[in-house]
């Protein structure tokens, strides 16, 4: 029997079966809540990695930029994308 917040009615005599059903309903609600492992898994699968130690791009560009300079920037961008993915 699911938990019924309207029971027991005020000033009603206590009934063991009704109270047991209420407690079992509450236990079922508590057991259905996510645990820390489930929460950690959800966070890890749905969020980016920490990039606090990621080194920023330090290159410079000539005008016009060379293919090597553009490739260096593309490589750094790909490194950032990989770091953000789990």
Layout of SSEs?
Elements: H1 16-31, H2 36-46, H3 67-84
Q: What does this 3D model show about the protein?
A:
The protein is an all-alpha fold. The protein has a domain at 49-84. It is 52% helix and 0% strand. It contains 3 helices and no strands. It has helices spanning 16-31, 36-46, 67-84. The longest helix has 18 residues, at 67-84. It starts with 15 loop residues before the first helix and ends with a helix. 0% of the residues are buried. The model has no long low-confidence stretch (mean pLDDT 90).
Summarize the structure.
The protein has 86 residues and is mostly helical. It has helices spanning 16-31, 36-46, 67-84.
Portion in strands: under 5%
Number of helices: 3
Task: Find the count of extended strands (DSSP E, 2+ residues).
Answer: 0
* Rg from alpha-carbon coordinates: 29 Å
Distance between the termini: 41 Å
Poorly predicted sequence stretches spanning 5 or more consecutive residues:
none
Overall morphology: rod-shaped
Task: Report the mean per-residue pLDDT as an integer.
Answer: 90
The share of residues in helices is 40-55%
What is the N-to-C order of secondary-structure elements (H for helix, E for strand)? HHH
Summarize the biggest pleated sheet.
none
Class by SSE composition:
mainly alpha
